[in-house]
Amino acid sequence: MKKNIIYIFAVVFVLSCTSTDKRTKLKNLEKQQNEISEQIKSLKKEIESTKKPKEQIKNNTAVLVEKILPLSFNHFIEVQGNVESDNNILIPAQTSAIVKNIFVEEGDKVEEGQLLAELDGSINEKSMDELNTSLELATTVFERQKRLWDKKIGSEISFLQAKSNKESLEKKLETVKEQYDLTKITSPINGTIDNILIKEGEMAVAGMGVIRVVELSKLKIITELSESYISQVKKNDIVTVYFPVVDKSIKLSINSISQVINPDNRTFSVEIIIPEKEKNIKPNMLSELTIKDYTNNNALVVPLNIVQKTGEEEFLFVAKQNNKKWHVEKRIVKTGKNYNNKVEILSGLSPNEYVAVVGYQDLTDGEAVEVKE
Q1: What is the mean pLDDT of the chain?
Q2: pLDDT in tens, 49-96
Q3: What residues form DSSP beta bridges with 91?
Q4: Quick one: average pLDDT of 2-23?
Q5: In which element (H, E) is residue 126 found?
Q6: Closest CA to 281 of 320, 252, 318
């Protein structure tokens, strides 16, 4: 029994010693693992610190540049105008009646006072016939009474009644003739029949237009410009006028400029006379006007699209060379007028500098670039 107890105690002691050795060994291994991990991190940092920055190892951005030289820059106003005529007249009917005859056709040349059409005036004609008959009798009676009165024969009242009757009939006849003349439609000007709005047998209404007459020798273009241009556009300025319908372009000069601003749309009117030799131009034809309002004979001009904007700040990229290596510089500029995709640079750029015109979108200030001129 005593021997068994001693044996069990020995076994427990051996097992206890074995468990303690394993814990010690585990702690040692974990300590070594931590040391190795720290060494790995340290080596990684050293390796990363020896690498070149990404921007240094990538290829330089390729840009296309343009050398900026002083040149002449013009700015133009582009507006639409309408062809009008001072002598574009829609003749109205002066009385209401049936259209009896039309003596002209559209396109006919007519002269001032020429009879164009007539309305039914039969009632006036009958009235004039009756009045003429009565007037003949009244005139005969008056003449006889006058001869008698000149000889102091008869009464004065008979003479005065005959005279009054004659004069009254004359006035009535004159009135009826004037009414009859209203049935005659005549041309007020020399011109061309542009439109006939009535037909024979139809009713013409007093005051309504019936025939349009146009004098094509006196045409002009009228356009409206913003009030901001009133000090820039002057009389006799040259204007390029294009007529899309006939595909024709001519150069004309401004004939007159209104000095009154229209309060409804803040514009003023400009008038341009069309020469008589331009036969294909017609009233109400649309025209496109190009008016030069600004010139700078020593301007620095760049493509409009290369000027970028951040808030209120405008900038572009200027390419500069140093030791045969190119880099770009962000340049703050002030722009002026622009026209036809070109913009005038007022400040921030000097002659003979190179600006990036292609490949400028993703550049940064100071970036190295590969330049192609």
Answers
A1: 86
A2: 665 454 444 567 888 999 999 999 999 999 999 998 878 889 999 999
A3: 211
A4: 55
A5: helix 122-150
A6: 252
- Name the architecture of domain 88-213: Beta Barrel (2.40)
Give φ, ψ of 234 to 5 degrees: -130, 160
pLDDT at 25 over 50: yes
> Start-end ranges of CATH 2.40.50.100 in the chain?
88-213
Domain 61-74+297-372 has CATH 2.40.420.20: yes
Does the domain formed by 78-86+214-295 have CATH 3.40.50.720? no
Residue 95 DSSP one-character state: S
pLDDT of 11 above 60: no
5: confidence class by pLDDT, cuts 50, 70, 90: low
Region of 41 on the Ramachandran plot (φ > 0 left; ψ -120 to 50 alpha; else beta): alpha
The size of the chain, in residues, is 373
pLDDT mean over 26-52: 75
Q: Tell me how far apart the alpha carbons of residues 229 and 241 are, in angstroms, rounded to a whole number.
A: 18
Indicate where the chain has its CATH 2.40.420.20 domain(s). Answer: 61-74+297-372
> Burial code of 5-21, b = ≥16 C-beta within 10 A, e = fewer?
eeeeeeeeeeeeeeeee
Quote the CA–CA distance of 268 and 287 in Å, as a whole number: 18
